[in-house]
Amino acid sequence: MSLRGERYQGSGASTSVSAIGVAAHELKSPLVLLRQLSIELSDMSLSQAERQRIADQMKHISERGLRLTSDLTRLESQLELFSVEPVNPLDVVRDVRSELSGLYMAKGRELRVARVRHLPPVIANRDLLRRIVLNFADNALHYSHVDGMVELQAQLLNERSIVRLSVRDYGPYISSKEWRVLSGTLKHVKAAHQRPQSSGLGIYIAHEFASHMNGSIGATRHQNGASFYVDLPVSHQLALV
Amino acid sequence: MNMNVVIVEDDEWLAEHYIRVLKRAGCRVEHAPHAVGAIAVIDKVQPAVILLDMLLTGTTAMALLHELQSHADLASIPVVLITNLAEQIQLDDVEQYGVVRIVNKATMQPDDIVAAVRGAVL
After folding, report:
1. Could you give the ipTM of this predicted complex?
2. Among A87, A100, A131, A220, which residue has the fewest nearby CB atoms (within 10 Å)?
3. A11/chain B closest Cα distance in angstroms
């Protein structure tokens, strides 16, 4: 799933597609790959190890596609059904690491959780928050260097009123032009609701999920990569208890 | 096919697939995952054909095609576009950038990749 807006804007295709078209396009990539690998799997000259490797890849690709369809289903259903409650953000981060560690390993990369001593609970829906971080971490996989590392970070901001969960990749430097496109996508993500072809679908999904929890998403550019983050309000109610 | 091919494809597993197919056909293959790194690889290898994914992450395939055209020694290398957008791109529109074939990712067979590479150097 592409989170960086240039994916559509820079495609050179001057098509006007609907939200369904964007979703269909996003699903096309894993389906194309599955098809190619399944054709390859029928090659009887492959060794057992090669077969196993391709079968593992197909499993991970299917899981990625299923995550996207699950997110789209959540968007289509009433988000109000996803109630908010105090959630331990570190549990979510660990869940994401656990869920994606196999995919990262298969791609020769490492998903690490930065050391954090303690964080207060946030007001969130655990499932939606997990989906946002999963989206970011999945995206980071494509931008990190081969053999590289991606880090899940958590910090307390704004006089302990906000928790920021970030996914830091160590990919190639993002040029100013590319960054302007990405920043524009993040700032005008509402507009993307009407013209989703101008935005990455992942950003749109993350934005919608974060908004439902009174949170927000953003990104920071580094010399060697980028961080995508979600900010969520701290649950003071539980802190008092 | 005794020739050098450079694949510019950001999906590692799809790139691995192309590499297996082309190596089986006798090609020597180098892979660049991003357009930014592709020029250096192309410059080093001086391939007979470039296999280029249209929807790259970061710097786009179009930017890479422009860049290739700006180098006298690289401008003449034939490019095979391999893309999910094959139905939306006309060869006439991209021929000026050295593109000689467009392969549809969604319908291609492994033999199509080999045929496209072979056809590109004819």
Report:
1. 0.85
2. A220
3. 6
CATH architecture entry for B4-120: 3-Layer(aba) Sandwich (3.40)
Nearest chain A alpha carbon to B10: A142
pTM exceeding 0.90: no
Asked whether residue A1 is assigned to any structural domain, the reply reads no
pLDDT tens-digit readout, A58-99 = 999 999 889 988 888 888 777 778 889 999 999 999 999 999
Nearest to A10 by CA among A158, A126, A156, A184: A184
Q: Is residue A103 in some structural domain?
A: yes
Q: What is the pLDDT of residues A176-199, one digit of tens each?
A: 766 677 666 666 654 344 333 334
- What is the Cα–Cα distance from B8 to B4, expressed in whole angstroms? 13
Task: Provide the sign of the torsion angle of the four alpha carbons B53, B97, B41, A144, taken in this order.
Answer: negative
* CA nearest to B22, candidates B108, B119, B114: B114
